[in-house]
Structure formats: structure tokens, C-alpha cells
């Protein structure tokens, strides 16, 4: 049988890629046809995403896909969560989207929490408190100059899908990160929208992964040389990453390791009790209505920002190896502290936090990196214990997927801190999850997530780290 080809557009906070997913009866192979850098820029008083540049990079990637894989039948889109753009009544973007690390929500958080207390928010949306959740961002947006002209609030992957097809919907897994969806029904919460004074008509209807959103607009199809469907996938990158975890068994925890580390377990039903809220665990909606029960752990953002401050590009293997060879005990920071959310001066902020807590200050870059690695591994271990205790899910193995799966020192420290075997890879789990959900919708992949994951477990190159 001829293999079939599905294209994945996967854009994270630190970088994007367009990949061809070549699917045959036994396996999925990914070929990267285009990669590009991403990052928020400060413009017009806010940290923003450059929408025009992202769309140009997406089009470049699709042109490369058309060149190398003209038989591509469908494309899926995923990006980081919570952020959105505003469209006017004619469907034109009103501005570059403001990024979640922008400080505009500082005043919105107390205002929203006064309108609906946090316990009630949790009972409805089941989300951990993060200061940048869309509901806080929208409350800040209402004070801004664009609100009166806004006809549609559109999450980033849906904004790209709208550019490609002209169709407008909100994808279900990403909708669940807005804080405006009822975790039990999966639909917009009338109660929260009313409390925040947001007109429900601003929010496009929710669509499930595996639905055909539309086809590439004729003008684009001609220009790019590609006539393909756009199929809705788990458009929250973490939802697609969890689909791409190569584990046939369910007694596992995952660490989706990129700019953030999303650490948790997959469940069939949300955990909404007070202990779960107090531990700040989130119930995000997964593909096939699974629940991604997890916490956002500060992640490799800390490392990215140190490298940026040091003027180092890429992820230098030598520095990671040097850090990995240092002894433990040099100090740890709380990677989840809100003080690390904003960009800038990360080495200094880490040193200040260590000083404040009575740790020695790092003398070298490797020592700073080691503090980050030890702090992340410790946070993963605590989070996995809590996820297991709060949900009742036994955890035998820890799967690390995403760019951070290549960080050998971090994987080794994670195995030691969790006392469990770590299985690292695939690096591109998100693109794999994106491709598999499309392939299933078009009859080219198995019906259940377990069967898909068993295929990945057999077909992907994985590294194992023993707990000792
Ligand atoms: P996101 O989707 O959030 O942009 P990715 O999943 O692409 O993130 O992961 C990016 C991270 O992966 C980088 O910040 C870096 O720390 C890590 N990484 C990428 N390449 C390597 C490598 N060769 N060795 C170690 N870590 C790497
Ligand atoms: C990871 C991620 C995470 C969200 C954050 C905004 O890329 O989507 O799941 O919390 O970005």
C-alpha cells in the first residue's frame, strides 16, 4: 500500500516547524520540511507574537511540503495554549496578539477573582491558577482600545486555520485552557462569561479534534501548489504531545518538556476536589475527551532565558554536560514562582532567589545551569507524586517527550529524583500526535489512543534512564 502523508504545523513559544507525517500500516515517520524561531517581542507597550511573520513561516513551510510531498492530503495545526487574536467583523486581525508573559494581567487577576472566587472558578473550569489564563487576559483586553471593534476572539491555532481556510471555530482541547469552558460539559460556561461580561457571540463554536475544518483557500492552494484539507487536531500543543507519548500502558506519568514542563497523568474524568485545587492541579481536556491532569512546571524557559542573556544560541551540549557532571547540592529555586514568568535578566533573578533562600550564588554558567536542572528534576518528582496521590493513578514509568527529552543530564536527574525509570523521546511527540489524529480522521490510523501509542512505542527511537 502507498504510504499516506499528513502535514503538521507545530509552533511552540520557542520555535515552529512544519513536518510531513508519512503514515503506513505499521508506522509513522516524520520529515521536517521547515523550521523557524519564535519568541515574543516588545512592541506598542506589550509583549506580542508577530502574527504576520508566523503566517509567512507557515506558508513557507506549506510550500516546502508541497514541493517534497505533493501527495499531502491534510494539514493539522497546533500551538501553545491560552493566547488569542481579535478579528474585526470582516475577519481581519486587529493587532498582533499579546503574549501570555505580558504583565497586563497584574490588575485583571484580583478583579476577576473578586467577580468569581477561585473555588467557584475551579469547580467550573478545573484549571490550576496561572496569572495568564485567557480569562484574565480578556479582562485586561476589555480596558484596551480594540475591544469595541472586536467581533471574534480566536485562539492562535484557529487564527492560523482561519488564515488558511477562511473557516472559524474553536478547537476543544485548546478551548479548555481559556478558563471559560465548563470541564464537565466541554462547552463555554455561560456562568463565567456572564460574570466577566463577555458576549458569548465573540467566541466561535467548539469543534472536536478529528473534524475537517475546511480546505486551503483556492488562492493559497494555487500559490503554494498544495490542495489539502485542514483537519482539526489537538490544537493545544500539549494535547497533541500527550497523544504522542509512546506508552501502551496507562500506569505512566508524562513530562512534556519544552519552554514549559507539563507534568502529570492522563485520566478519564476530572479531579475537582479541594485538595486538587490547593495543590494547583489542572484538568485540561485531551483528545478523545481524556483529562490531562497536570501542572505547569517552570520548564526550560529558565535555561532559554539564561542562554539568551549570555548571548549563546542553540542548546550547547558542552555546557549541559559540564552542568550534569557537577555535584548536586548547589542550591534549588522554586521554578514555579511567578517571579520567573517575565523575560529578562534570568541569571541575576536566579542568583537573587538563591541568595534570598540562603544558598550559595553560582560562580559559573555551568553552576547556574545545574541549579536549573536540579530544580526542575525536583519539581517533576514532587508533581508526579502529587498527581498520583490526588488521582489514584499508579505511576510506574515517567515518559519525557519534546525538545527537552534531548537533555540527557535532566533525564538522568529526573530518573534519580522520581525513583522511576525515565523513557525519553520522541522529541517531536507533538507533531506525531498532530499527524496521528489527522490520520485517524482520514482512516489511516487506529481507532484508540492506546493503539496509536503502542505503535509509537514500537516504532520510535527511545532512550531509557534507570532510576539509580
Ligand atoms: P516549545 O515547543 O515550547 O518551543 P520544544 O519542545 O521545541 O519547545 O523544546 C525546546 C527546548 O528543547 C529548548 O528550550 C531546549 O532546552 C531543548 N533542546 C532542544 N534541542 C536540544 C538539544 N540538542 N539538547 C538538549 N536540549 C535541547
Ligand atoms: C506549552 C503550553 C502549555 C501552556 C503554555 C502557555 O507550549 O501550551 O501547555 O500552559 O504553553
Automatic annotation (TrEMBL):
Biological-process GO terms, alphabetical: rhamnose catabolic process
Domain of life: Bacteria
Pfam family membership, one: FGGY_N
GO MF annotation list: ATP binding; rhamnulokinase activity
Xref: InterPro entries: ATPase_NBD, FGGY_C, FGGY_Carb_Kinase, FGGY_N, Rhamnulokinase
Domain Carbohydrate kinase FGGY N-terminal: 7-244
Enzyme class label: transferase
Keyword ATP-binding: yes
EC number(s) from the headed UniProt entry: 2.7.1.5
Transmembrane segments: none
Domain Carbohydrate kinase FGGY C-terminal: 254-441
Alphabetically ordered keywords of this record: ATP-binding, Kinase, Nucleotide-binding, Rhamnose metabolism, Transferase
Family that this chain belongs to: Belongs to the FGGY kinase family.
Protein name, per record: Rhamnulokinase
Source species of the chain: Naumannella cuiyingiana
Lineage, uppermost ranks: Bacteria, Bacillati, Actinomycetota, Actinomycetes, Propionibacteriales
